[in-house]
Design goal:
The chain is mostly helical. Helix content is 63%, strand content 0%. The chain has 16 helices and no strands. The relative contact order is 0.07.
Amino acid sequence: MTFKQIKEKVNSLSDPDQAEILQRFFKTGRGEYGEGDVFAGIKLPVQRKIAKENSETPISELKKMLLSPVHEIRMIALIILTNRFARADEVNKKIIFDFYIENREKINNWDLVDISAPKIPGEFLFDKDKKILYDFARSKNIWERRIAIISTFGFIRKNHFEDTIQISKILLKDKEDLIHKAVGWMLRETGKRNLRTLELFLKEYYKTMPRTMLRYAIEKFPEHKRQNYLKGKIQNKIKTQHK
């Protein structure tokens, strides 16, 4: 299908009541992080189905979709891109990555970032120079900062944690709650795979990092240990095991 046909499909499935709920949930009011975003009111499984049915949509049409003010149309475009990236050869992976970066301005809500960043920049950059993520981490744009940290989920899945830790340090004093949650989430995912790496980070920063970030990072800890972190009772020194 073309952008026009996909737009007509989305319009035919729209649900005004659901759209109103989503616009509140994704904070689309004046001064909120999603200000001006427009929802059709279509649930994610339906969006995935439309994406699957339109997997061969030309990249020129995907660009038109990303420029759409309708959130679900942008999401469908990103799902198509992530699915296409997964089966692409190296040449086409580079094309998709470049397209993603060039059009990142329209990847402008947390769900759009979260569904795409680990699977495109997070996969593409794993064995490459990651400077662009560090540049994004220092950006004034909240979505670039979120792309920076969420992209590292692709590295975490391959047991590479260094970039998650370093980008988390850059974002420690971020003022946005959505960044606190994202960093905490990636730290938690790091801890699932390498608890010592997480605790070495917490040892240094848990008393000064944003509270939400800490809560997310330690969410899977045993309750007594979690409470000790929240109450500031964890010793700074990480104990080593003696054989």
